[in-house]
Amino acid sequence: MFGILDRYIGRSILTTSMLVLLTLVALAGIFGFISELDDVGKGNYSLTNAAQYIFLTLPSKAYLLFAPAVLLGSLLGLGAMASNSELTVMRAAGISNGRIIRAVLMTGVALMLLIALLGETIMPKAEQIAEEIRLTALEKRLSVKGRNGLWIKSGTRYVNISTVMPDFTLLDVHVHEFDGVELLNSIQAARAVKSADNNSNDWLLQDIEITKFSGEDVKTERVDEQLWSDITGEANTGAALPSLVSVDVLKSLKGSSESLSARNLYDQIQYLKDNQLDSRNVELAFWSKIASPFATIVMLMLSLPFVFASQRSGGAGQKIFIGIMLGIVYVLVNKLLTQLALANGMSPLVSAALPLICFLVVAILGIQRSA
Fewer Cβ neighbours under 10 Å: the N or C end of the chain? Predict the structure, then answer.
């Protein structure tokens, strides 16, 4: 499957791409650590905590910088081969540009699988642990959006949470259950703690006031503490989404959508759709996550016209400049096109795929003109 030529070209691209990626991630980590120094000394946040936080966010930085790093690495790796006349020798030996392109694309598939594995396994977990370390050390509560706290719709119930602590303890919880437009009952709890059973989706509510509305009658009951499933009379089914609030939904508040796995994003989409809420932004993040590995192959193809067109001209400095400019253009155009497409009513799938399609067309046209 992989011949000598495939391995040689692949090794050249992989080596330079990984070196570029390590350099970019190291620079991003250094700048990130410098910015974290402003918080050192607050609460229990120490230099060690800051270093741990930055180290655990490196996979996320690597994921975001992977496509530009592959583009720059490909320009340098293939450019070095062109400058050393290796591509010329290959052509003289009867190897066509199509064969060289095939070898580059085979390397791209390997890189695509690598970044997909990073984005689905290592990055989400590392980002979650990093945020937990930072929030706990800073003794910060997980702020929720809006002056009125976090509102979550779960079936016929509307849950309002004032504050979420780093360990996911909920403070000042209000639950309102409706039958159509009629309010059936209202539950207020000072605290809600995740059940001690890790396999359970239940919550233990403390300092509870339950108000039930029946016609013109209003009944109020106070309870020190009680399980949510006992309050509602619903048995814990072990489903992925608890009847009060999903921990996965709370976890998603900590970081950006880019730091979540495709599976977590899919679960959020199902939750929003089940509760008849707008899921377009989360769907865009999901499809962008699916499309992200394919950007690796597109970036490799985008570098080929510059290599074929200038096999003996231009040094490393010129190729670095071209790679940086193309990387910046890709990031800006990708963000611009996805948001414009979504704002103009296009489906999230089309919005996520549009930038890749545009750059792919540019790469193919460039290869045809330079080959």
Answer: N
